[in-house]
Amino acid sequence: MNLHRAARASNRAGEATTLPAYVPIREVAVALGLSEGRTYALIAAGSIPALREGRRIRVPRAAFERWLEQQAETALQNVKRAVSA
Fold it and tell me: Which residue range forms the structural domain that includes residue 76?
């Protein structure tokens, strides 16, 4: 089940919404507009925070959200520098 559908379903049932602790690689790829292969390559290079549990690669939601915020902040700073130059 899609995470967003699961959240809506739990809201309809009157339960508190809790998202899974890990983001599926497919959702990371979609969020970044990348292929799954490219996403795995960035994880292997250490660019995207992830954990390896045996053969499974997991992306912790909190770490991924912090990483996204850092990437956005870096991009904003780069734009500000380019505009002021």
Answer: 21-84
